[in-house]
Amino acid sequence: MNTLSNSPLLERQPRLHGLYTMMLIRAYEERLALLQQNGAPGTCTSVGQEACAVGVISTLDWRDRIITNHRSAAHLLARGADPQRLMAEVLGRADGYCGGHSGSLHISVRELGVVLTSTIVGGGLSLAPGVALAQRMGQGEEGGVVVVFFGDGAACEGILHESLNLAVQWQLPLLFVCENNQWQAYVHRLETMADDAIYRWACGHGLETQRIDGNDVDAVSAAARQSVAAIRADGRPRFLELLTYRQRGHLEPDDLAYVDHAERERWLKRDPLVLMRERLRAEGVLQDNDLAAMQQQVSQRIDAAQNFAESSAWPDPQQLLQHVYA
Amino acid sequence: MPILTVEQAINQALHEEMQRDPRVLVMGEGVAKSRASLLHSFGAQRVRNTPLAEAVISGTAVGAAASGLRPVIDLLFAPFLTYAMDALVNSAGKLRYLSGGQHEFPLVTLSMTGAGWCVGAQHNHNLEAMFVHAPGLKVVMPSTPADFKGLLKTAIRDNNPVLLFTDIGLLHQAGEVSDDTEFLVPLGKAAVPRIGSDVTLVSYAKTVGICLEAAQQLRETGISAEVIDLRSLKPLDEEAVLRSVRKTGRLVIVHEASGLCGMAAEIAALAASRAFDALLAPVVRLTGPDAPVGASWALEQASVPTSAAVVQAVREMLPRTAHAAEKPLTELA
Prior knowledge:
The complex is a heterodimer.
Chain A: H1 8-12, H2 16-36, H3 50-57, E1 65-67, H4 73-78, H5 83-90, H6 123-136, E2 146-151, H7 152-155, H8 159-169, E3 174-180, E4 183-184, E5 187-188, H9 199-203, E6 208-213, H10 217-234, E7 238-243, H11 261-268, H12 272-282, H13 288-311
Chain B: E1 3-5, H1 6-20, E2 24-28, H2 31-34, H3 36-42, E3 47-49, H4 54-66, E4 70-77, H5 85-92, H6 95-98, E5 108-113, H7 128-132, E6 138-140, H8 145-157, E7 162-167, E8 174-176, E9 191-194, E10 199-203, H9 206-220, E11 225-229, E12 232-234, H10 238-248, E13 251-258, H11 263-274, E14 284-288, H12 297-302, H13 307-317, H14 322-325, H15 329-332
Parallel strand pairs in B: 2-3, 2-4, 4-5, 5-7, 6-7, 10-11, 10-13, 13-14
Antiparallel strand pairs in B: 1-8, 6-12, 9-11
Helix pairs in contact in B: 1-3, 1-8, 4-5, 9-13, 10-11
């Protein structure tokens, strides 16, 4: 699953994996934002939220299933998706994971267990209990857990409560991960939510919940590891609210004219990559030359992804009607 | 052959398919109560009562279908499907396509609609055409107990999402139903319950019976009507309609759903574009009005096309044509 294992540096220092993956995600999304200025399709990035994806997904194994959303690049890359095929999909090319049918918004990669990506806000919450039910009824591998990622925007959809209630009542092996990134498209969540905390809504349904600093990858992975182990043990759902911040706009390009810049500055000082980098330095795990080597490797992979994607063929228009029906 | 009601035929189909395939499960509001025999035979894991929450019932079915199960969900009344629209239309209908063919969604939704119980417009709304319009979904609406059984069994075995609508007015109608566990009716194949030569009456669900009544009345005045029961609305048996229209030259389409952008409009367009040279008279649509269904018996019944209206429509279209003019006028009176 992990695409980084061929790096001697990362083999010597497993603790660098998380930082490396976050750097890869950041570089991938920033490259796409750059390409957008030259006419590539706009994307909904998760810049600033990388620790949520990496922290949670690093605790999963091959048995587990992931349901993501329109901000999916971090989840996919953390799960080991190939940046080349991912970028080809975003650019609408034949070699993309979905043959160009998806574009950036609904990418799923079944072979990686990233299933049923819905870009309808809250759509994944409606699908997740069914994936977990199939798991519980013996369709998946023994002990498998389903993780559904959604945001504070989706939490304001009524389906959250239907989904939580059913998961608790039917005892489904489902981890709800709310990446509370403060933004619901172009509106700050404090403008739309009467309550400041989403985890309290889940508490009302009788789930074990945790509210975690979503910019601290170690804190996220510790909470996720504990939750996943608990779900594997008793088959019941758990809920994580990860407090984080969407650093870029809802959809590229975005001038951020609607953003409270003082709030944004406070969050930028707590950038998840910077936090992890400084921690690893303080621990003596990360040397400057290691960081440079990692940065170079990331850049090479993103360059290769762009080359691959841009040279991939457009889908044959004959495929317009392919895959409508099974 | 055994005689079953529509309700019994549906239960028999569910029972046989659950027996045949352990991946089939039934979920919905009160299904373990309303289909207690299934609960008795297959247990609470596979016959699941749900909250009154159509969005998550349907979403759960879609997620389960993509993950190896073959769910049948009972959403009770068709208007409740509007709560299930996201899961059915945006997920079940689209995520196979958007994923480049990675997923399959073998699921069936059951719901009831149509005049008969005076339940008013929020329990009686023939909205089947909305789902015909959504890519990736299949829609069936049978008229006989045998077709209910055979089509439901086929729908459960199909690897696509299928919506089966049950006309409330047919629930207690009885008919011969094969007890062969391999009795299947293919999707996309119309039935011709009455053969005729002067006019084609195309319908589905309860109004098939109305067309058969009208055909009998027309026979008494010397007019030979062919009746086509579509059974499947998507896939649609276009050839069955065209073959009949090319033979009779006249087409009346009858359904209880409102007319605007409905199945009748689609079939009229089919005839106009592919059998225009065979048409001897303008195509006639007899449908429910563009209005919610009133609850009062009188209002509810007034929203359903009648056999008298079908007879009148046919008589009005016949004298306009050379074919009809050859007939003795007494036959047309």
